[in-house]
Amino acid sequence: MKVLFINEYLPQEMLGIMWLSRAIKDAGHTVQALFIPDKGWLDKVREYDPDVVCYSTTTGMHLYFAEISRQVKQVAPKSLAVFGGPHPTFTPEFVEKDGVDAVCRGEGEVAIVELLDRMEKGEDYYDTLNFWFKHPATGEIVRNPQRPMVNDLDALGFPDREVVYDAGAIYRNTDRKVFVTQRGCPMPCTFCFHHAWKKKVYNVKNTEYVRKRSVSHVIDEINAVRAKYPLKFVHFLDDIFNLRGDWLEEFCERYPKEVGLPFDVILMANMTTEKQIKMLRKAGCVYARIAFEAASDYVRNAVFKKHTTRQQLYDASRWIKESGIRLGSLNMLGGPGGTIEDEFETVQMNIDCEVDHPLVSIMQPYPEFDINDMAKDMGYAVAAYDDFPTKFNRTSSIQFDNKHEIENLHKLFPMVVRYPFLLPFSRRAIKWKWAAKPFLIAYMLFSEYMVSEQAKLYASAQGLSGPRYWPLVDFVRRVSVKGVLRTYEALFARYLERFLAPKHQQMAISLQMGDERVVSHMD
C-alpha cells in the first residue's frame, strides 16, 4: 500500500510523521511526504497515486486541511483520506466533513498498520480500533473504541527521518534537530491536551500513560542521526525533561561522553532541584525553559492546575541563571477568572526572575480540554471550533470584555520583561485599540531579535564565532530578507508563483527554523 502524508511546512521536523512512517515501512508498505505550499503539489499527488492520504490537524487548521483533502480527491479519487492529531482525536465527528473518510484517535502506529494490512488483503477494515469511518456506501459513521497505548517505546524503533528529509531538504540540512524521550505527562494542566488524552480518550492512569524511552535508545538515535545528517545542536521536545530523577542522572552521566552535543530542555519547576540543574549544565545544556504560565496563585493552580508554588518557580529560575544556562519562561495570558492585574503580575514575575527569553501565548480553550468547560461555567462565551483562530497567539477565542487589552499586553510582554522601564507605559498602552497592529509589528520584530540571540547561543555552544553570529547582525539579516520576500510577494505575486515560489518558500522556512515562538510546548 502507498501512503502519502500531506502537511504544511513547519519550523521544525514533524516527529509524528516520522514515528508513523517507521511503523508503516517496517510493515512493508511505502511512504512519502509532501509539504505545501508547493506549486506542483497536485501533480505530485497524481503521479504518486496514493492508496491512503494522511493529515494531522489542530483546531483552527481543520477546515483548511479538509479543503486540501477535497482537492486531493480530484486527482486521487480512490484514496482514503485519514485525519489524525488533536482536533480529530477530541472531535471525531469531524469525520462527517466532506473530504474526510476516517479519523484516527490517539496513537496511530499500530492502528495505521492494521488498517493498511487489511486494505492490502481486501478485507473489511471498518472495525479497526482507534478509527471512526464514514462508510462510502451508506454514509453511516462507524465508531470504534481505542486500543491500548504503546507500552514499550523502544520497541517502536527510531523515527523515520528520511520520509521528512526527502520531502523537505530544509529539515535535513539544518544543524538543529528535534528529539523526544517520552510520551505522556502526569500533570493535570487544564489548558493542555494531556489530561484530556489520558482521561477522555484512553481513560488510564499515569502509570500507563506516562512512558519513557531508555537512555540508551535516545543516545543511539542521536548518534545515528549525526552519522547520517548534519547535527550540531539537540532540541528536546519533552514537556518535562526532568520527569524521572533516575533517568536524568543516567542521561547526564552518559550523554557528554557518548554524544557531547549542546542541547536545550523544558523543565517542571516543582520537580526541579539545584542538583539537577548542575548536572544538566555539566552535561551540555545551554538553555532551559520553565513553565511559569501565571504568577497568580489562583490562576496558576486553581484554574490552570499547575500545582507549583511561587517559591518553586523562583528557585528553579535562580538555579538556572546561576549555572550560566539561558533562562526561558513559558507564560499564558487570557486564563478565565483572571484579571488584567493578574496578567501584569505575571510580567513582574518574569522581570524579578530576570528571564532571558520570555515566551507568551494566549490561552485557547480547545475541544475536550477542562479549561473549555471552566470558561463556559464562568459565563464566558467561547468561539465555535470552526471559528477558532488559525494563529493561536494572535487573538483569544474567549470573548472577554477587555479582550483587546489582553491581546495588546501579549504583544508587549517580551519587551516589557526585558526592559522593565516600559512597565508604566504598557499599563496605559494596552487600552489603545488603534495600536493593535503597531504592537504586533513590534512584537514580531523583538521576537525576531530574541531568536537572533538564541542563534548566537547555539553558535557559541558549537564553537562558532564572528560578526555573522552577532545578534544585531543576524537580526538585520533576518528582518531584511523577510522584508524583501514579503514585499516581492505583495508586489509580484504572480511572478513569484511562476518563477520564484520554491526558492521563496525555502528561504522563508529556513529563517524560521528553531524559532522559539513556534517550537515551545505551548506552540
Structure write-up:
The protein is α/β, with parallel strands linked by helices and about 525 residues long. It has two domains: about 1-145, 3-Layer(aba) Sandwich (Rossmann fold); about 175-455, tm_1862 like domain (pyruvate-formate lyase- activating enzyme), CATH 3.80.30.20. The chain is about 50% helix and about 15% strand. The chain is built from 22 helices and 15 strands. A seven-stranded mixed sheet has the order 2-1-3-4-5-6-7, with helices on both faces. α1 (about 15-25) packs across α6 and α12 runs parallel beside α14. The longest helix is centred in the C-terminal third of the chain and has 26 residues, at about 435-460. The relative contact order is 0.09. The model is unreliable at about 490-523 (pLDDT under 50).
Helix content: 40-55%
- Poorly predicted ranges (pLDDT <50, ≥5 residues)? 488-523
Number of strands: 15
Task: Report the total helices.
Answer: 22
Return Rg in Å: 23 Å
CATH superfamily of the largest domain: tm_1862 like domain
